Amino acid sequence: MQNRATTISDLEKYIELTEEEREVFSRADDFFEFGSTPYYLSLVDKNNPNCPIRKQIVPSSGELVQTKFEVMDPLAEESHMPVKGVTHRYPDRALWYISSRCAVFCRFCTRKRKVGQNEFVPDNMDWKKALEYFSSKKEIKEVILSGGDPLSISDSKIDYLLTELKKISHINHIRIHTRYPVTLPYRITLELCEIFAKHFPIFMVTHFNHPKELTKDAEETISMLIKKGNVVLLNQSVLLSGINDSAIILKELFYGLVRLGVKPYYLHQCDEVFGSTNFRVPITKGINIMKQLRGYMSGVTIPTYVADLTGGGGKVPLPTDYLIKEEVETYRFQNFSGKEFSISK
To answer: Pick the catalytic residue: 109, 113, 187, 331?
Structure first.
């Protein structure tokens, strides 16, 4: 983490930037800072502007454009936040934002408004209030540790949080969302895995988007998590234009994940966050890609294609009976509680 590239001069030690990338870099930095580990940069094709790793982390001109559908907080997390750091949108589960730091800042991040910004990070008193909130809400069966990246905090703090959550009798299980197996696999140590094993069961959702990310280092990390940490591993990918919006690429990714012991869980339609214009794939194309996979691949390898409804409606599967009306520019959906939401096509 201390050796991350965070400036354009750092980045140019690894990549030959195009003129457009140089011009966009400083302007994009006003909205969302740049950051990447040397490990993840080592996966970049230095001379190919269309490299799928490069496009995930190097600022592009699309980030400077805001369509009328894009907002800073597309999932309305702040409006469902009873305690700092806690988003309680679904009745039986709550998300706990415990770190603003990431090994790599993904350009399509749905939380780019707060990732890297220390003022959003809960302190020890906020943690205490969050634990009290979880204890008071008997309907909460699952707590999801998220961020930033929750594994950015120390092993001792991870152990403390897991211990305190396990003390709450009505919490059925804990989930951790992390991209460290993808962007900095060396963060996963034997000592950390022993902590996970102590708090079994732990469900961990990783975030591999492209087969190039399934390196030998990532494979060893996944093996350690499963064999030493007794962790149940799932993966969520984001469908990204020009990166993985191809049945051929996704087939390779999903089979590769299952081979390593990771269940493909979700394929996300890219959220309508400010600056995501260049990343979003039309929903009709995403549906057609899934049609090319389902029935032609093992069911174990197939994730659920979902959209997280803008405005805080939650996730709905695509294609789906949740779709109630197709309009000129948008689709209208009903969420799990029957409320109506729209997302752009």
So the answer is: 109
